[in-house]
Amino acid sequence: MNTVLLLVGLAVAVFVGFNIGGSSTGVAFGPAVGSRLVSKTGAAALFTLFALVGGWTVGRNVVATMGGDIVPSSAFTLAASVGVLFFVGLALLISNLFGVPASTSMTAVGAIAGLGLASGNLDWEVMGRIVSWWLVAPVVAFWVCAVVGRYLYPYLEAWFALDRSDSALFDVDRSGTVPIPRLAENTRPKEVFWSGVVLAISCYMAFSAGASNVANAVAPLVGNGAITIDQGVLIAAGAIAIGAFTIARRTLDTIGNDLTDLPLLASLIVASVSASIITILSQLGIPASLAVSATMCIVGLGWGRATRTTTIADAASAAIQGEESATLSTGALAAETPERAEGAGGTADGGRPERVRPIGDEEPTDLTAQDLFDPSATGRVVMLWILTPSLSAIASYLLFRVFPVYGGA
Question: Is residue 209 a part of any domain in this protein?
């Protein structure tokens, strides 16, 4: 019986890892694939490698938290582990049905918390610390990107244009015995540098995804001692690789998710900030959502960019006098038109950029092109981020109250 349960648990763990690889590869490597820096196969290989490194290093802290700190590891019998992993898989199913990237980390913690409530051994101090970071991290993500959007983004946009030429970056010189790659005729050194930055940040995102998500697939099985932490990381990484090389190709075809609907510069800022937040939290052993942090980065960056239409003094004066402040555009990060780029940030020939217009000089109409996000869609996403962990905890509690298969029962 135990062998059958272990096989079921491993199957569910592989299913979870498979879906993580399928969705997260598009998030991490969408910009790189979309700008032709790497093929879909190359993206899958790099994502697998760096997700493994993230899980093998920083991810161990998250596995320890989810496998024995929220509830004692003794509570994770094989049956209880299968139950917890079932709810993680169910969350993936719900998110796919609604088209929303629900947080597997938050849902997994919810399922473990339900187990702890049912068994009466939930560590409230650990749970409180995790939930506190769930509240703090999105706020930090929003304000960091809001500051960047308001004060730095136009300058970055003007100085570090990330446009790619239509031709390949490199040619291969095959005249000698050994093929030697060389810069293509129309390739500029600046283009090569920023292409390398895009690829490096994609790998960083993969590292962050591995550090945060490996625990979602195997923490209960590691907690009950069915597998070691080394085996768990390898199993999760293998399942993530299968997803990266198969179903991830569809997400890469559409250039990932919401991150890659943005201009490349904005995508890099969002990726860098969100991945840094998740890596830091993973180092602290806090299971957190990359999707939540990334989305709040997108909203913060767009909001900050849009607020450049008015100064703080003008906004404060309008608030005191009861007047309506300047209209903010949610399309503030939409792709630049050539006319706008030439007149407000850079030159058409790629020379030294013109002066960036100061805060308060930009008009709302200068920032509108297309909506950065749909408010109704954003509301649905936030609702599901709250709903799925809550339902996971409630359903897990009811399951383990009716069937007390946890340790010590």
Answer: yes
